[in-house]
Amino acid sequence: MFNARLQAELDELEEKGLRRVLRGLDGAQDRVVGIGGKAYINFCSNNYLGLAADVRLRDAAAASLQQSGFGAGASRLVCGTLSEHQKLEERLAVFKGAERCVLFNCGYMANVGIIASLFGRGDLILSDRLNHASIIDGIVLSRADFRRYPHCDMAGLERLLREAGGKYRTIAVITESVFSMDGDLAPLDQIVRMTKQHGAVLMVDEAHAAGVFGAGGRGAVEHFGCGSDVAIQMGTLSKAFGSFGAYVCGSTRLIEYVMNRARSFIYTTALPPSVAAASLKALEIIEAEPGRREALWRNATEMRRRLKEAGFDTLRSVSPIIPVVVGDEKRATTFSAKLFEQGLLVTAIRPPTVPANTARLRVTVTASHTPDDLECLLRRMKTVGEELCLI
Predict the structure, then answer these.
(1) Whole-angstrom Cα distance, residue 88 to residue 277?
(2) What are the distances in angstroms from CA 31 to CA 38, 103, 244, 311, 339?
(3) Quick one: pLDDT at residue 166?
(4) Residue 262 in 3-state DSSP?
(5) Residue 132's closest CA among 171, 186, 196?
(6) Cα separation of 91 and 94, whole Å?
(7) Helices (DSSP H) in 17-106: which residue ranges?
(8) 321 with 207: CB under 8 angstroms?
(9) What's the confidence (pLDDT) of residue 136?
């Protein structure tokens, strides 16, 4: 009976165009990837600066393997803190302009652990409606009261802040800076002003902004010049950094508290030190090679402009994440499949990742893409878009 129920639900997902499958890559995550012995230009990776296959990250990881072995062997608070972890935390704190930093094993574990440890009953959390699932799950685990404000709607946020005044121990506002499926940017300058006015705590998820936004690649908080007003800065090392893991930066008191209360930090084995060493090398490259970021922005700006000119709906994207809204789930998967047949990897994003009837292709450009890559994608997207009556 149990297996029959599972199969019936899988069949229903298939019928609705919502069933997902794993697609394995033959080699490294890069501008061009191998799948089943064929080459595809990759337009759906978060490898924004092209560092995932950079030989310098591999060399740093290899050197760490020789010195520190592979596994950390224990949780951080037992005996799993190695020099690579400490060096990376120290450098990330300086990079983000914070007093302290602590690593988590991934972005999901970071958001769940940070939120559930810092807030609870008697607190109120105000969350952007399009925040990542990890933020929502962290809020649910915290057991704090929870309200969503309409996406990037500052009037809606201010109304909720006014209504909550004096009723809670702590009021927190949590937002992504760059939204992972829409590619737009939260107005952090306005959010900072409101949280300061109402005495609320602000947490910003910089997963898709770190390494990309800001003059020094320090994220959207640098872009808006408001880092000192953001109490909790979370970010990941698996996107622009080309590595793996996550972090939270803030005051020394905040980091000490999270280390002592976050279950997803306390009860898990530490990241392999070689992963931390690769992340540290990526940070050095991001600081030393601004040309990578400049190439990324040239490509993103050109791709966004030309997709709009072709008539595609790219929402309010201002980042290297460029959604091409299709609407219907099956039509989105058909669009993706037709591009795949022509050597282009662009995954269809469907509910529950995005709201119903907003299925889309999530085009991501990187610093590594060439002008010919962009031209190829644009030409073939126009052809398929016309076939599907999208443009």
Answers:
(1) 7
(2) 14, 28, 18, 26, 16
(3) 87
(4) coil
(5) 186
(6) 5
(7) 55-68, 83-95
(8) no
(9) 98
Look at the chain and count its residues.
Answer: 391
Q: Give the H/E segment covering residue 125.
A: strand 123-128
Annotation says 142 is catalytic: no
Q: What average pLDDT does the structure give for the chain?
A: 97
Question: Residue 356 has what DSSP assignment?
Answer: T
Active-site residue, selected from the candidate residues 239, 281, 338, 369: 239
For position 169, what pLDDT does the model report? Answer: 97
Q: What is the pLDDT of residue 16?
A: 86
Residue range 146-172: mean pLDDT, rounded: 96
Q: Average pLDDT, stretch 109-117?
A: 98
Comma-separated ranges of CATH 3.90.1150.10 domains in the chain: 24-52+290-387
Q: What is 55-288's CATH number, 3.30.470.20, 3.40.50.720, 3.30.1380.10, 3.40.640.10?
A: 3.40.640.10
Q: Which of 180, 238, 264, 336 is catalytic?
A: 180
Residue 359 has pLDDT above 90, yes or no: yes
Report the distance separating Cα 319 and Cα 256, nearest Å: 33
C-alpha 140/C-alpha 158 separation (Å) is 22
Q: For residues 339 and 234, give the distance between their C-alpha atoms in angstroms, rounded to a whole number.
A: 35
Residue 208 annotated to the active site: yes
Residue type, 72: A
Structure token pair of residue 279: 């992340």
In this prediction, residue 17 has a pLDDT band, given cuts at 50, 70 and 90, of: confident
Tokens standing for residue 316: 């309010």
Reply yes or no on domain 24-52+290-387 having CATH 3.90.1150.10.
yes
The predicted model scores a pTM of 0.95
Rg over alpha carbons for the chain, rounded to the nearest Å, is 21
In the chain, which residues fall in CATH 3.40.640.10?
55-288
**DSSP state for residue 99 in the 8-state scheme:** S
**Mean pLDDT, range 184-191, rounded to an integer:** 98
Minimal CA–CA distance to 340: which of 19, 39, 46?
A: 39
- Say whether 208 sits in a helix, a strand or coil: coil
- Residues in Cβ contact with 292 at an 8 Å cutoff, skipping those fewer than 6 apart: 49, 50, 51, 285, 286, 367
Q: Tens digits of per-residue pLDDT, 316-325?
A: 999 999 999 9
